[in-house]
Specification:
Layout: H1 6-11, H2 18-22, E1 41-44, E2 51-58, E3 61-68, E4 80-82, E5 89-91, E6 95-101, H3 105-108, E7 112-118, H4 123-127, H5 145-164
Antiparallel strand pairs: 1-2, 2-3, 4-5, 6-7
């Protein structure tokens, strides 16, 4: 991912108002992020732990999505869970169900889509081995790195497609 600035990030959000986007807490020290190792920029809000954000290159621009941890979701601190985007296994609460309000009228009506993400949204770094899961017995994949990256971006694209889906036409 190419480095992006605050203005580009705030303008990219598709499932919140411009006012909401202007109040999003951006990641600290953005100039120090490992941009070359990122397939998308993802972060959790330290002031509001139930909120997360992701910004991904899409088409000719960026697409940003606000995420929330649904209320009442129980986390197991003993089970292993797997991120549905990068397929990294994590112990306990290392994976979170994050829900995104759908874009457009569907989102304004309260419709959401969800996926299980690495809780810290560092999927790109886990895939590349730059960050390690705390899992005692890690799964060793034989899939080449390029294929794992392609799988990650494909899974992310599928999630973003669902965020952008419009209400089905009624006959």
């Amino acid at each position: 991912m190419d480095p992006v600035g605050e203005k580009e990030i705030r303008a990219s959000f598709v499932n919140c108002s411009k006012g909401e986007a202007s109040r999003i807490s951006l990641p600290a020290r953005m100039t120090e992020l490992p941009w070359g190792d990122l397939d998308f920029l993802g972060w959790r809000d330290p002031g509001a732990p139930d909120r997360g954000y992701l910004v991904a290159p899409r088409g000719d621009g960026l697409m940003g999505v606000t995420l929330r941890v649904p209320q009442g979701v129980r986390r197991s601190f003993t089970k292993t869970t797997v991120c549905s985007v990068c397929m990294t296994g994590h112990p306990g609460s290392g994976v979170s169900l994050l829900a995104a309000r759908r874009a457009g009228p569907a989102g304004r009506q309260g419709n959401t889509v969800g996926a299980y993400f690495c809780a810290d949204l560092a999927c790109s770094l886990y895939v590349r081995g730059k960050k390690r899961s705390q899992l005692a017995a890690r799964y060793e994949e034989t899939l080449p790195l390029e294929d794992r990256i392609e799988r990650l971006t494909g899974n992310l694209e599928g999630f973003l497609d669902k965020v952008m889906e419009r209400e089905p036409a009624r006959s």
